[in-house]
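Lecture notes, unit on protein representations.

Consider one protein chain, 186 amino acids long.
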Amino acid sequence: MKQRCFWVTSSKLYQEYHDNEWGKPVYDDKTLFEFLLLETFQAGLSWITILNKRENFRNAFDNFDYRKIAKYPESKYQSLLQDAGIIRNKLKIKSAITNAKLFMQIQEEFGSFSKFIWAYVNDKPILNQFENREDVPATTTLSEKISKDLKKRGFKFVGSTVIYAYMQAIGMVNDHTKNCFKYPVL
């Protein structure tokens, strides 16, 4: 049986996410936005809740197309509030629309969101060497810095904890614990 990180449950969905996505560097803006949207909705909830609703989010938010989301009219916002398949939090739904607009502003300024976000780590993932649950932080100085920058730009639901989880999800930091089969052999 494969040894996985401490947070992975017996859920096949969780295992597949851990084995195939989590900690794997993502440079594609569309996928970077998908994870940003999902992480902001996850704030205060468990990640498995979001994973279980991921396809519902994909359908509700036009396949995570930030260009479309940025132009959502009030009627679309109202329909999202009625969508039982997603997290129906007014502020989080509004933030998805706001963040989509700001995401595109960063693309204009930096050429891509990927260039912007990966510049924080000089385009190279940080490989941590954590032994167990107690070692893995909820935030870091870097997640705090990115959070402050995004908030200054107007992004919502991007606190330091959300941003650190985002950094883990998109592979900016590799936090697979040393006993995990996904921990890279150096």
